[in-house]
Amino acid sequence: MTPPPARRRRTGADGAAPARNLPRRGTVRRAQAITTYGVGSLVAVDQESFIVSGLDGADAHWSSDESPLIHERRLARLLGVQHFRLPPASEDTSRDGIRVRRFPLMHSCPACGDLRRHRDFNPPAGRSVCGTCEVDLVPSRFVIACEAGHLDDFPYWHWVHRASGGGATTAGQCGGTLKMRTSGHSSSLRSILVSCTCGVPEVSMEGSFRKSALKDLGLRCRGTRPWLGTSAPAQVCGMTPRTLQRGSSAVWQPVLKSALSIPPWSDGRADPLAEHWEELRKLNSRAEVEMCLKFAFKGESPVPIDEVMALLDAEREEDPSSEDGPTFDHRYRALRNKEYDRLCAGNDERERSRDEQFICETPLGDTSVLRPLGVSGPMLVKKLREVRALKAFTRLADPDATTEPHEVPLSDSPLQWLPAMEVRGEGVFLRLDEERLGSWEKAVAVAARVERMRTAHQRVMEQRAGDPSRVPPSPATPRMVLLHTLAHVLINEWSLEAGYPAAALRERLYAADDMAGVLVYTATSDSAGSLGGLVAQGEPELLDRTIRSAVRRAEWCSSDPLCVESEASGTGGTNLAACHACVMLPETSCEHNNILLDRALLVGTPDDPDLGFFAGTLNH
């Protein structure tokens, strides 16, 4: 592959490259700027490594021309912002783009073996090469991070001098030059050798990934935040950092929040009011609202006063009652409750305008054919819009937890907007019969299986949380695990029968005391999006065959009998009868990271075939 042409580069006083656009040789899609390469993440571009800049300051500015506004009032209110912005488009004419900074700063030269900061190699302008050897520099494979989200270079000086008694105060003052080489005996850490020309013994990187490795050196996190640049002061931290591979998924995990656009917000007519909405919602009377609109828009409001009042009433309906005021979790549950109500009710043609982004209709077929399965109320969601916003990110995240206690904000100051993406698609919504579900949930065997998963999940969350007393209760309930597993087997079935890749389908669960539904939809930004194929699968007769086929397929797994008879599976025992050979999905399709799954709740077990919700109904 022909290397790209050299690019001009300026070097700051600290040796770090200033914020710069992602080069064309390493462009990312807009969706990746939310899910994979968001603020604070590391991105590899050819032989170099960069960290995506935060949203503070001019260096990280997203121009309005290249970052269009996205409005989704319900989600904006939940996250405390006015609107959202799409990441800048990666076009040849792009003037702004997503800014990045060089990280890690420690590099090594494969020719001379020197290990030092990038600026100390004196590379020519626009190139990342050793100024002496003219060989491409290699960014450090290792970084350190703490649970508070701070990120720093691996402390090679301290690691090399630990054997000679050099502590945090003496390492780096010997005047020598660090060297790195590989013995070639294996690809393990033992073969990566680091030395110093001051004469201390050569050491390997073996043991550097132990949780207490840096603590044993007397090191604590310095609170550095390289994605905010050198102008951002380091935070007082003091946590014990851990060593990570630069490309590890533990270095950066997004905290994403999403919402469906539903009436009365889904036709876009309220978008012009976004910047004034916080002021409007504080007013009580119609006269005050009308006066505010006249003052804000210098005359006539772009939205009729009757519609504004209706929107304010609809928003207040989502305010959950709480003695201490609605918390974030309360508001998020209220958001889901409103979506569930709208999916159940649908909207007919009389309620829809030409710009309506949510179309949900009752199927034409006879829905009574689904009654023997305990399924009711299928709805065809012919058009939907989902907004996914990057709220924050985490480091050293627990892949099995539903919440993370250490969320790192995207900037050092309050923001009026957040990065987001909007996806449009279609879907099928179905509910379970409440009466049958209620009697099934009361079964002792059902409750016992779910309690094992709930206990294991709660234990895992408490073990990995900074403050176990603040860990929320596990969401595992019989109906939640049942709906979750049902959604997975439906997605697998549709990926086989309807031609959709499993990664193009997503689940959205509605599981609570007053909710028992699941939405499977194709909210993707690629060609597997809104083509009408999934909606066709929601017609009752076809849906009946699909559910029966999916559940029968779940009766057997290629890993049986180990899978179905497993006492615990998944990390920490958060699954039971579930594995990658039967019900697990690509991580982009699952809301709960492939945990809290048990196909025995669908079909039963060899010892207790009546345990499953669908037991005894498939032959009818």
Compose a concise summary of this entry.
The chain is of the alpha+beta class and 620 residues long. It is built from 14 helices and 21 strands.
Which secondary structure elements does this structure contain, and how are they paired or packed?
Blueprint: E1 20-21, H1 32-35, E2 42-45, E3 48-52, E4 69-70, H2 73-79, E5 83-85, E6 99-102, E7 106-108, E8 115-117, E9 138-139, E10 142-145, E11 151-153, H3 156-161, E12 178-182, E13 192-196, E14 203-204, H4 213-216, E15 242-245, E16 253-260, H5 277-280, H6 286-296, H7 305-316, H8 328-345, E17 359-361, E18 375-394, E19 417-432, H9 434-441, H10 444-464, H11 478-497, E20 506-512, E21 515-521, H12 533-536, H13 540-554, H14 600-603
Parallel strand pairs: 5-19
Antiparallel strand pairs: 1-6, 2-3, 3-6, 4-5, 7-8, 7-9, 10-11, 10-15, 12-13, 13-14, 16-18, 17-18, 18-19, 19-21, 20-21
Helix pairs in contact: 2-8, 11-13
